[in-house]
Design brief:
Layout (H helix, E strand, L loop, with lengths): L2 H27 L9 H4 L11 H13 L2 H9 L4 H28 L6 H9 L1 H32 L4 H19 L6 H20 L5 H7 L3 H16 L8 H26 L18 H8 L8 H8 L10 H25 L9 H5 L3 H21 L5 H37 L8 H16 L7 H5 L3 H22 L5 H27 L3 H33 L1
């Protein structure tokens, strides 16, 4: 199979989805209306609620939802064959993932920018709200713990990514000040700071920074030193006004990623490497069954519950007008899905450009690819980019920087979302310290660091990561449930949400139950217990929602 044929297929489906299906959702299902005042205007506070240009907000949303998920997931999942991975990424994005993100964003702006958990409380009661908030909080802590470990590991393995990853922070602050304080047209600082960012990538490839000597002087492991530095940064970043760092950082990251994706795709179009992976491989050595685990291994890129936290946690508070939700929510997800497609091409065709046997070596077994997923993406992507005439070292730095920046922006947003949830819990239970932004940020950082330190070498979050995929997709199903409850109350069409809702809850419940059984049989009662608890929480939330619908129906009938 030609790589070019895969690219043409994917973008043809994306174009149809955005031009026609998203327009149908906007007009007929959600009824977007620019005469309505968005929460960004109604509750503007200059910190979290800030009316924002839709393209800048798209940059924030795109980079916040993307993270390392659409990179690692597809890189692993192609072991079952490139055809099922590609079909789930493309059609899952158009009909499920983008609908999920779009729906969570619209539902939130129709509820004063409140989170999905808070909105659930309005429809299903306070108990459901608290349970959902606690579930979200647990998942956010896990995301922060794992992403801190991943970023630190990438800094050690690819020290050339250190300079560009940290250079973007002062560039973003200067960008925010230029646009929001000095009212400079955002196109001018965009060009200037993007050039400086790429200059830092070149400098990083020439002067990689190795933190091992400093770690040795301080008597700590290099990975732990990086983790402490990352959490120190996120503590301050999570409480700063969104216009000062979060928005401009994510906007610049988004542009950098779009350019890098263009380089990968152009490289694939020029080199046109053949796909060497099997189209279907239902029984790889040591791998779990393709159904249902393909659908939770590829989360971001096709569907991810974490996106609902971003849509209702930060993006909904910055939306300038309702019609912008189609660009930010639906198109933003398609952008993430296009990254997953690029990863599929890099891993199934790009890795074999220099050696025909390289794919078979990397994907010899489930255990092999779980350890080699990120190197496979870096290697395959670098091969594609280098076909444009760029050196391999610079190409590797570009790919490594891409992964680091995505993971870092997701971590930034996740800590901020933790702060919001802790603020909400403080209001529910009248705990005054939790209502304070800085104290809530401190608790968010310390709880995530506590999980990191639970295992030697910063691997604490990895202990629970095996159940994260299924838990993340269950969260997506519950977010779709909230959107359904809203649409039902407003007497709007619900079928485009109901079908994904039922499908997602069924598949991921099966996966979570299988995780529970498998872990119990292996004697891993900790993970089995966590799987069981998450399933119980899901059932409780669904039952509370069903009771709420029945009560509402009885009220209407009487």
């Amino acid at each position: 199979m030609s790589s070019v044929a895969i690219i043409v297929f994917a973008f043809f489906v994306y174009a149809l989805g955005f031009l026609f299906y998203s327009r149908y959702l906007s007009k007929r299902v959600f009824g977007l209306d620019d005469s309505r005042k968005t929460p960004a205007h109604e509750l503007e506070d200059g910190v979290d609620y800030v009316p924002t240009n839709r393209w800048i907000l798209l940059g924030h949303h795109f980079t916040s939802i993307t993270g390392a998920g659409p990179i690692v997931g597809p890189a692993i999942a192609v072991i079952w064959g490139w055809v099922p991975a590609l079909l789930w990424v493309v059609f899952g994005a158009v009909f499920i993932g983008a609908v999920h993100d779009f729906g969570a964003l619209v539902t939130s702006i129709r509820h004063r920018g409140n989170s999905i958990g808070t909105i659930l409380g309005e429809y299903a009661g306070e108990r459901a709200r608290v349970v959902f908030l606690l579930l979200i909080l647990a998942l956010a802590i896990l995301v922060n713990a794992v992403f801190a470990f991943v970023i630190a590991l990438l800094f050690i393995k690819f020290p050339s990514s250190v300079i560009p990853a940290w250079t973007i922070i002062p560039l973003a602050i200067l960008f925010g000040i230029s646009v929001y304080r000095f009212r400079v047209n955002f196109l001018i600082p965009t060009v200037v700071f993007l050039v400086l960012l790429y200059a830092s990538i070149y400098v990083g490839s020439m002067y990689p920074i190795d933190i091992k000597p400093l770690a040795g002087v301080l008597g700590v492991e290099p990975i732990m030193l990086w983790i402490v530095l990352l959490f120190t940064y996120t503590f301050f970043a999570s409480s700063l006004p969104v216009w000062l760092l979060l928005q401009p950082r994510d906007f610049l990251n988004g542009l950098q990623v779009v350019i890098l994706l263009a380089l990968i795709y152009v490289g694939a179009l020029i080199a046109n490497p053949s796909v060497v992976a099997p189209s279907l491989n239902p029984s790889p050595e040591g791998a779990p069954p393709m159904f249902p685990f393909l659908f939770i291994t590829i989360a971001c890129g096709a569907l991810s519950g974490f996106h609902a936290l971003v849509s209702s946690g930060t993006s909904s508070k910055q939306l300038y007008r309702e019609s912008d939700a189609r660009i930010v929510g639906y198109l933003g997800f398609l952008g993430e899905s296009s990254l997953a497609v690029a990863v599929i091409i890099a891993c199934t065709a790009g890795v074999a450009m220099l050696s025909a046997d390289r794919f078979a070596e990397l994907y010899s077994s489930w255990a092999s690819i779980k350890k080699s997923a990120v190197p496979a993406v870096v290697e395959g992507g670098a091969n594609l980019i280098s076909s444009l005439g760029l050196g391999m070292e610079l190409s590797r730095t570009l790919i490594a920087t891409l992964i680091v920046l995505f993971a870092a922006t997701t971590m930034d947003t996740s800590v901020r979302i933790q702060r919001y949830i802790l603020n909400e819990l403080g209001q529910i239970y009248s705990i005054k310290p939790l209502k304070n932004a800085w104290f809530a940020s401190l608790i968010a950082v310390l709880s995530s660091m506590g999980l990191v330190l639970a295992k030697e070498g910063g691997k604490g979050g990895l202990v629970f990561w095996p159940v994260f995929g299924a838990a993340n997709q269950l969260l997506a199903g519950l977010a779709l449930l909230v959107t359904y409850l809203y649409l039902r109350r407003e007497s709007r069409p619900t079928l485009p949400v109901v079908v994904p809702l039922v499908l997602v809850l069924f598949i991921t419940s099966v996966a979570m139950f299988m995780n529970l059984v498998n872990n119990a049989l292996k004697g891993d009662y900790l993970l089995a217990s966590v799987s069981g608890i998450i399933l119980i929480l899901e059932v409780a939330i669904v039952l509370e929602s069903v009771n709420a619908v029945r009560a509402e129906r009885r009220g209407v009938e009487t």
